[in-house]
Amino acid sequence: VDFLQHAHDSGVAFWIAKHAVLYVQVARPAFRHHLPCAWGSVRSWSLEMPLRNRTPFPEVLLYATCFTCFLKSASSPHATDKVAWQRLGVLLLVSFYALLRPIEAFTLQRLHVFIQPGQPAIIAIQSPKNRNFFGRVQHAVLREPTALAWLAYVCQDLDPKAPLWPYSLPKARR
User: Fold this and answer.
1) According to the model, what pLDDT value does residue 90 have?
2) 139 beta partners
3) What does the pLDDT read at residue 168?
4) Element (H or E) spanning 173, and its range?
5) How far is it, in rounded angstroms, from Cα 82 to Cα 104?
6) Cα separation of 85 and 72, whole Å?
7) Half-sphere exposure of 10 (CA within 13 A, CB side)
8) Do the beta carbons of residue 61 and residue 92 sit within 8 Å?
9) Strand order from edge to edge, sheet including 113-114
10) What is the mean pLDDT of each successive set of 10 residues along the chain, which is 174 residues long?
């Protein structure tokens, strides 16, 4: 903890201090249980840092990507490829307009999506990245009409436990 305080006061880069604690944890596993205070200091330091948001995906690029997915779905000779391309396009739309992280969108199940005609969709995020600060289950709202229509189409015949993305995560990255 003294090292972290000195690093903080001296203007050492945050990542260096954090990686120093990580190194101790990995190099000396027996010390792992003695590090909660150090991790608390790292966490406090991280909360002092200014937020840096990623540059958003331009909307025109979103529509070009989704259009390409839907074209590939329509022209694919294999049923599994048709479903994969269609779901990829829909999940990209949903992620963009509901402000979901990729892992949050690609791990959704049908039971996490509440859709009523004429109303925005409510999406339950079961394991959000910021669950330590804002709760273990969070919700997103999807209001954009095109994304809402596609999401309703995908969800209409799915079993409640069925995933919206029934493939592996690496398949979405390809």
Assistant:
1) 95
2) 124
3) 79
4) helix 169-173
5) 22
6) 6
7) 10
8) no
9) 113-114, 121-125, 138-142
10) 89 91 90 89 87 78 95 92 92 93 88 92 78 67 94 92 86 72
